[in-house]
């Protein structure tokens, strides 16, 4: 085994492998802070709804590039676990408006606090602003490739 292999990633691995590794390790860290929760990446939906009260299911489909079925299944789970609520949109009774519940409202600031703590602990600093900007550009370009 090579010395420069880390968690099955080597210096020959593509950048996306390293990014995926960072994401997985951040998720493990967050799970350790929220042991009682079984949210994983689903917390991103709660955070979007928290930041965009009264958004629609279609907005989540468009934002996250997931199928309507996948989003519906996740929303049902989050509603059953009392993180979000769905209310019929009075302007279009076939659509729902999504909002976070008190439980969701309490989760998001705590989650963001631990996320910032993780960033500090792994060495992400204000000096990395250009790198973060470039990663965002890459993410946007990648999403455009599959539209």
Radius of gyration of CA atoms, rounded to a whole number? 18 Å
Helix and strand string, N-terminal first?
Answer: HHHHEEHH
> Number of DSSP helices?
6
CATH superfamily membership of the domain at 45-118, which one? Winged helix-like DNA-binding domain superfamily/Winged helix DNA-binding domain
Number of strands: 2
Walk across the major sheet and give the strand order.
1-2
What does this structure look like?
With 147 residues, this protein is mainly α. The protein has a domain at 45-118: Arc Repressor Mutant, subunit A (Orthogonal Bundle), CATH 1.10.10. It has six helices and two strands, in the order ααααββαα. Strands 1-2 form a two-stranded antiparallel sheet. β1 (84-89) and β2 (92-100) form a beta hairpin. α1 (15-33) packs across α5 and α3 (57-64) crosses α4 (68-80). It starts with 14 loop residues before the first helix and ends with a helix. 12% of the residues are buried.
Key features?
6 helices; Arc Repressor Mutant, subunit A; two-stranded antiparallel sheet; 10% strand; single chain
In short:
With 147 residues, the chain is mainly alpha-helical. It is built from 6 helices and 2 strands; from the N terminus they run ααααββαα. The chain has helices at residues 15-33, 43-51, 57-64, 68-80, 102-122, 129-145; strands at 84-89, 92-100.
Topology of this structure?
Layout lengths: L14 H19 L9 H9 L5 H8 L3 H13 L3 E6 L2 E9 L1 H21 L6 H17 L2
Antiparallel strand pairs: 1-2
Helix pairs in contact: 1-5, 3-4
């Amino acid at each position: 085994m090579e010395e420069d292999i880390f968690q099955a990633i080597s210096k020959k691995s593509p950048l996306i492998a390293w990014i995926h590794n960072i994401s997985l390790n951040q998720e493990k860290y967050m799970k350790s802070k929220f042991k009682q929760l079984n949210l994983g990446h689903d917390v991103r939906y709660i955070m979007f709804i928290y930041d965009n009260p009264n958004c629609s299911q279609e907005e989540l489909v468009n934002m996250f590039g997931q199928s309507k079925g996948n989003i519906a299944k996740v929303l049902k789970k989050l509603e059953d676990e009392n993180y979000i609520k769905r209310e019929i949109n009075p302007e279009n009774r076939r659509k729902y408006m999504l909002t976070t519940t008190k439980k969701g409202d309490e989760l998001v600031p705590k989650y963001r606090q631990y996320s910032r703590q993780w960033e500090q602990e792994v060495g992400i600093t204000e000096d990395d602003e250009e790198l973060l900007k470039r990663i965002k550009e890459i993410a946007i370009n990648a999403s455009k490739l599959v539209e």
